[in-house]
Amino acid sequence: MREDARAGKFQHLVVWKLTRLSRSLIDTLAIIEELDQLGIKFHSITEPDYDTSTSTGRMILRLMATVAEFEREETVENVRMGMKQRAKEGYWSGGKILGYRMADMNIASEVAMKGKLIIVPEEAATVQMIFKLFAEGKGLKSIANHLNKADYRTKNGLFFAPPQIGAILDNRSPKAIFSVIIE
Prior knowledge:
Blueprint: H1 2-6, E1 12-15, H2 25-37, E2 41-44, H3 55-88, E3 100-102, E4 117-119, H4 121-135, H5 140-149, H6 162-170
Parallel strand pairs: 1-2
Antiparallel strand pairs: 3-4
């Protein structure tokens, strides 16, 4: 958008709400300042026009941008608190993780385990192999190549890549299935 503004491709920028432009006070002010310098008018469909040519208009814009930033930070804090509480209660709050799956609410024996991780034996074996190969001195790329050649796939059915192997080795989730006994 900024590149197009500099290239003179438009004279008005229209957003649904100021927060759709940015939720950072500093970024919002920098963008609006640049638009003003380029002679581009800024409009919000759901809010009154911000007349940045007046001190009152600039103050209202700054206040609204400050509120947007506050709301974003508040949401981040609330999500963190919720995830922390779920963890304290023993529930998983992350995404897909190789070696586990979430309890299925449609399987009677798993209903009581809502939000808990269940070991997937086939995937667990893959994770254990990754740890074993690493313990043997193999590097991330070597491990990824080994798995891909042996037709193993990630949780999403894709080929393994070194960063994914590193993430598995660094994972701080329950490691009961990941322990490798080296004899």
